[in-house]
Every structure is written in structure tokens, then in C-alpha cells.
Amino acid sequence: MIDNDILRIVARFLIPLIMLFGLYIQFHGEYSPGGGFQAGVVFAAGWILFALIYGLDAALRVVPERAMYILMVAGVMLYCAVGVAGVMLGGHFLDFYPLLPGEHAAQQFGIITVEFGIGVTVATVVMLFFTLFARRKSQWEAAEVEDDQP
Amino acid sequence: MIVAIAIVRAKDLFAAAMLFAIYSLLSAALFAVLDAGDVALTEAAVGAGISTILVLAVLAMARRQERPKKGHNLLALAVVVVTGAALIYATLDMPEFGAPDNPPQVHVGPYYVEQSYPDMGVPNMVAAVLASYRSIDTLGEGFVILVAGLAVYALLATPPRRRKKRRDHGQEESS
Q1: Structural domains of chain A, count
Q2: pTM
Q3: Residues of B in contact with A117 (CB under 8 A)
Q4: Which domain holds residue A66?
Q5: Is this prediction's ipTM beyond 0.90?
Q6: Is B124 close to A32, i.e. CB distance below 8 A?
């Protein structure tokens, strides 16, 4: 779809805004509606728009498939690491108070970190979904699988 | 409601996918009207955005029209009518909408509303409840997402086999 000027220019204008909005609801989630889940989805939506306009190969050069697998596990691991860090510092699992001196600072640090972990996981999983589904079509054509019905 | 009926009636799967997106967007607007900003954002992003894109990606591989079905499934109709009647009967027992003595308003809700800001200084109560009070639940949700990703990977990562030959074989058998 890169040949269509309107699509390309509108997308070039929109993609940075979508990604910026994703980061905004990621890191501003304690003050306004938002959080890791929404931010991850919005960020991935920006990437998917890029993939729709410039093709999947170009998008996979930006975020390689291997990075998706690593990051989607890393997000959950970050969440668990915050939980274990609470245990290490003398609290319960996922207890944020021991992390930093000052109750509010500790809670906010914990919330932002776990939301970031969730955001990373959600964004990469959605990207991975899109990659796998979109690639299936070309794989079918390569393997000469015919549609069951005309 | 009208959109939901239109989805069921639509034979064109592409139109049905688009109607689903409209349905999600309308529910997002409803949540926004009810001042549930977080839920509205999620519904708009996930329901109207990503699911529609994924459905369209699948539709690129499937046929566009629904397979026509003959006759009516009376058993399904009976099940739907009985379940719907039971649900409507159950709503008669529900407390009045928004009444101050409803169970959600008197259980742990007031504690969160009053204490979440003094406890952690986070203005958005939803984020406070999700990430701190109910942290383990959210961890579980994260694992659900991860497992979903792994499941799709397991199903789709292997290249498809050639299915052409097998179908020829089946035709020979039937002829």
C-alpha cells in the first residue's frame, strides 16, 4: 500500500502520534485513565499501521520477531522481579513498600514498573499475533494450499 | 442492540467484522459516559482496534461469505430462550442501579476510594487497585497474555503442509 500517497502521508503523520499516545498512557497511567494493557495495545496498533502501509518485512526490520519473543517474556519477568525484590527486601511477594524509602515513592515506583512490564508484554504479544496471522497467507500461497471452496 | 442483530443477520463476514468494531466503539462510548475511563480506553483499543485488525487478517485467508445454512436449529432456540428468560428473571433480584447500599458500594470499595490516595499517592484509583492492591491478579493477567501469545505461536509458527494432494486422494475415494 506504499504506492498510495494519501495513505502513506496520513500514516506518516499518525504513527508517531499513536506511539506517543501509547507512551503517554503507559507512563501517565497513575494520573489519568490508562495503564500497561491499554498502552501496550495502542503502541502495537501504531506498529501494525506501519506494517499495513510499508509491508510486514519493513515492520519486522523495526521490531524483529526474535525481539518480540524475548520482550514478551521479559515483560512478565520484570513483573515477577519486582515481586521477588519485595521478598528480598523483607516484605511479601509483590509488596512494594520495602522497595524505596518513603511509602508513596515506593508504591509509585512499584506500580510504574509492573505496568511497564505488562505494557511490554501486551505490545509484543499483539505484534506477534499480527505477524503470525499476516504471514500465514503468504505461507499458504508458498505451500500451494488451495481454498476449500471456490 | 440494533447493531448486534445486524451482526447476526449479516451474511457478509467483512460487514460483520466492521459491525463488531462499531459495536465495540459504542460500548466504549457507553463506558465513557459512565465515567469509566480506563475501561472505555481498553474497549476502544482492544475491542474496536486490535480485534478488528486480527479478524480482518484472518478474513484475508478465509472466504468472505458465510456458508448458507438450511433449516432452523430448534434446540438452540430453546436453549437461548430458556437462558434469556432465566437471566431476565434473575435481574428482578438485583438491587436498584446505583443505590448506595449495593454490595459493590459497601464491601471493599469504600476502603479503596478513601485510602488509595493516602496509601500510595496515586490519583488514578483504578491503577492503584490493579497494580498494587490486586497486584497478583494483574500478574496472572500478564501470564494469560503470555500464554496466549505462546499458544498462537505454537499453532501458527510451523509452515503449512501441502494439502492439495490429500484432497485429490479424497476425491478419488468419493468417485
Answers
A1: 1
A2: 0.76
A3: 142
A4: 5-148
A5: no
A6: yes
